[in-house]
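Weekly modeling sync, notes
Attendees: AB, CL, MP (scribe)

Item 1: holo prediction request
CL wants a bound-state model with calcium ion before deciding which constructs to order. AB pointed out that an apo prediction alone won't tell us much about the pocket. Agreed to run with the ligand included and paste results into these notes for async review.

Input as submitted:
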Amino acid sequence: MLTVYNCIVNEHDVRLVFLAAAICIFSCLTAVDLLRHARNSIHRPVWLFVSAASCGFGIWATHFIAMMAFAPGLPSGYNGTLTVLSLLIAIALTGIGARLAISAKWPNADLAGGALIGTGIAAMHFTGMAAFEVEGRISWDPAFLAAAIGIGVILAAFATRLALSKAEDKTRHAAAGLLVLAICGHHFVAMSAVSIMPDASVAVSASAIPANFLAVIVALVSTLILVASSIALTIDSRNQRNKFELQRMYKLVNAAVEGLVICDGETIVTANESFCTLTSAEDSNLAGLSIATFLLDARLRSKLLSDQNELVETEITDRNGEIIPVELIAHTIDFNGKWHRALAVRDLRSRKEAEAHINYLAHHDALTGLPNRRNFNARLDQLIAATDSNGETYLALFCLDLDRFKEVNDLFGHAAGDDILRRVSGAISRLLGMDDMLARLGGDEFAVIVPGLVTPTAASRLADKILEALQSENLNSPIGFLISTSIGIAIFPVDANDRETLLNQADTALYQAKAEGRNTYRFFEAKMGAEARERRMIEHDLRNALPRNELRLVYQPQMRMDTGAVTGFEALMRWHNPRQGDISPTIFIPIAEESGVILQLGEWALNEACREAASWDKPLSVAVNVSAVQLYSHDFPQRVHSALLKTGLPSNRLELEITETSLIKDTNRALTTLRQLKALGVRIAMDDFGTGYSSLSNVRAFPFDMIKIDRSFIKSVDKNEQAAAIVKAVLGLGRGLGMPVLAEGIETPDELEFLMGESCAAGQGFYLGMPGPIEDFRHLISDGAPVEDKKLIAL
Ligand code: C2E
Ligand code: CA
Ligand code: CA
């Protein structure tokens, strides 16, 4: 150690030693950086060479500057060829060592590579020493020599390992330091091994390069090379970083959902994948194209490409010519060192679709897909505003309400009801023109707007077609049910000047169509309004009639024609309305049926009549009228049964009067109900015979106990031959089927006489007894009272 210290301090110029060390430190730092860079660079061989050259020069320069510091006090110089050779050896061995350390896959290859670099240091040193010419003899101490080689090899091996270790930032200086120690350590220990015996006979050759001169050249050249290689390194690192950054940017930009296009003027420089997908363009073909290919609006384009930074909603055209709604925003960016405009493009298709769907749902009925009330109102307002109120053209408004739709739902379930609504909507839609609109206003209510009519009556043709279309729709109906509709028509500007009134008028006409037998249409007439209002008031009052005790029953006797005996009474409902006085059942019963109140009223009449009859001494029968609505209510037989149980009236004393019309609505169902009623022991009469569909098959098919000929046939039957013929035919039919016939509405003795002559079994009418409170007939129902009628006996 002391020898080495003496060697450095006493035999060397210490200032130059420091210079050598400085160059060595500088070159080692560069060497470590270059080695790492060579490892990561794609141009590895080039950087390996640069690294080897730099490191080799560093070692070489350190050696020769240190040699300049070495002052043996004798004339000396350097052999040029060997000097150059020593440099080449340093570069070659460092290069091979570095390559081994970086590329070899085997374990500890870094140490081995480093050791080779250490060998390079030694080989350079000894070749460099061989180039050293001095006036004396040089001898070497083998122990120091071995130590020098060992220090160089081992320290260089670990310096390389540190240089290539993962924790790059922390080990940079340590690795460079170790390498400095390897070079300097080797050099000075090796120099300590040198002893020079002055010998004037050993001459320095004339061609030898003077030591001082060489040292200056070495210092200059090596500094130059080191500076150049660190500049190159810096530039390359920066390029690599930029490239990496750019790749990262591309990846990031491509990952964006939004399309991005970068434009230089109108020319597309580049675009991300999203933009290519959006516009169905090939990535490679985009660059160089004009943005005008996609963005047709020239004004917007120039705005976006100049300075506008606001979000705009517009459309772009893709490569296939398809228009795509988009949102655009542009920004100016520095791209490759130049100002460009970057356009961000957001696809609005799914948002637009969702908006359209929501809008559709808000304006359409989900079941039929028809416009809903809101849509309808808007269109009606718009058309009313557009229709010339001076009467050049007219607008017809149809209000439709399906007949007995509630029963369809009740009988066949809601799925069948929905099916009917769809069929109706389809059938009517097919009849309409481009400008017409069919809307579903709710439930079974529809409306049609027909604008541009030349005459108001043209509307009736469409109404006829609608009724016909529904008739033919019935042929395909899976439930075999009759769908029909009632239609009310109001005309703008004839019937009203605004939507509200027009709708009211059409509604009134609809009410009228319903009242007049359904499956028909009616135009609005001024007097309808008053009637409709009246009907609505009655309907309202009727709901309160029962709780307010405004109803009662009157009784009309029914008699045997042959004996004149009173066989029973028909119970007839009477209503005293506090506002209007007595109202006829011919008015309030249809309204009660329409509104459904008949269910409560009929139930009351049934119970009241049974209760009354059960209190009579004589076992006379009581006839109760049954509405079709009651007949088709699901529990009617049970209700009759419970009325009988509650009042204690024997079932054979109850007669239910059912009109023929109510049977044909659903003959199977009616038949089932009648059979259940018959099973209770109740008798059934066919009421108002002759006014309905009157078919022989009905009479035969249904289990009737009596036929009641309608009073319209009895009126003047004694004078009117046609009526007489019909009555005779019905009587014959009754006889043929073994079914007794009762003649209703006998008003005169002549009518009575005629019927008796034709052997009619029973009769009822004002002439035989006016309907009245049961008290009026006390004598007929109490024990001991004669039951024969004086009029019959008189005949
Ligand atoms: P309907 O079942 O045919 O009842 C007989 C109607 O003929 C009664 O009219 C009765 O007063 C009337 N009448 C009886 N004899 C004569 C006569 O000689 N000449 C004339 N012109 N008429 C006569 P009302 O009480 O006004 O009842 C009318 C209709 O109202 C009834 O016709 C029936 O369909 C219905 N109705 C009455 N009460 C009820 C009821 O409790 N339930 C149901 N569902 N309907 C009822
Ligand atoms: Ca009746
Ligand atoms: Ca009748």
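Recorded for review: The radius of gyration is 59 Å.
Action items: CL to compare against the apo run; MP to circulate these notes.
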